[in-house]
Design goal:
It contains eleven helices and 14 strands. By secondary structure, it is an alpha+beta fold.
Length: 266
């Protein structure tokens, strides 16, 4: 790990001020991705601005429309939240399946979304549920937020402050996990809301999370696994690594999507 300066922010405004003064500063919350990357010397920020202890970025609130989760809220807190389990049980189940207990008790939803790892779970939930990501400057729809591999619409002077998820009539997330990391080789989140049906895939795409519109159209007319049984996803643009080939990931998308629909139907 290279040398860096550490700043524990006392507020979002303080964090933004420190970020603006730093030569090459980076915001840290749970640190479950950033710290291992720094230890491997694959990242060398000049400054770390810690926002993990900010009360204004933590907590969960619910109303008749959905739930809003503060950016510094841990995965374990989301998984155990009565509000989330009541409003969107699929989201709580997703959070409970992230990593191991250590990761779930330190990692945060804001950090996961801002990092936009191509195998992370939350981006699929955001895209499928039509979430809105809030920063210190604006609100961004999930459709516009995730722009590519480890890339988002965030500007240099923006920090994710929270995420709002609309309630779903039916929803479920199914993933084929790497047995070591618990990252998704393929994860599929299916959601049926008042706005229609969305199917979002993580772990498979070279550019990160994406939607499968052919499945969405089929499920809009018949929300059953049988409706998408004959749909094949192209392997073009899918990841190819030591864990799975593009063809295998394409196959898994269909399997996980059908399982997700069955789970959503109870």
């Amino acid at each position: 790990m290279y040398e860096f300066d550490y700043h524990r922010a006392s507020s979002v405004a303080d964090a933004l001020s420190a970020l603006g003064k730093a030569e090459d500063g980076t915001v840290i919350s749970g640190g479950q991705t950033l710290l291992p990357t720094m230890k491997q010397r694959l990242a060398s920020p000049s400054d770390l601005i810690d926002i993990g202890s900010l009360d204004e970025l933590s907590g969960i609130s619910a109303d008749g429309n959905g739930v809003t989760i503060g950016a510094a809220t841990t995965h374990a807190t989301v998984a155990g939240s009565g509000d989330v389990n009541k409003a969107i049980p699929a989201l709580a189940a997703l959070a409970g399946g992230i990593g191991d207990p250590h990761v779930r008790n330190l990692g945060t939803i804001g950090g996961s979304i801002a990092n936009n790892d191509p195998a992370a779970d939350y981006p699929a939930a955001c895209l499928a549920l039509g979430a809105t990501i809030t920063t210190n400057n604006r609100s961004i729809s999930a459709d516009d937020f995730f722009t590519g591999l480890f890339d988002t619409a965030l500007e240099n002077d923006e920090i994710v402050t929270g995420v709002t998820f609309p309630r779903a009539d039916k929803a479920a997330y199914m993933k084929f996990a790497n047995p070591a990391s618990r990252y998704a080789l393929v994860g599929v989140f299916v959601a049926k809301t008042g706005e229609g049906v969305r199917v979002a895939v993580t772990g498979a795409g070279e550019d990160g999370v994406f939607r499968v519109e052919e499945m969405e159209s089929a499920l809009a007319g018949d929300f059953s696994s049988a409706a998408i049984a004959g749909i094949s996803v192209s392997s073009d643009g899918l990841n190819n690594d030591i864990h799975a080939s593009p063809d295998y990931r394409a196959h898994l998308i269909g399997v996980m999507a059908r399982r997700a629909v069955d789970a959503a139907n109870g």
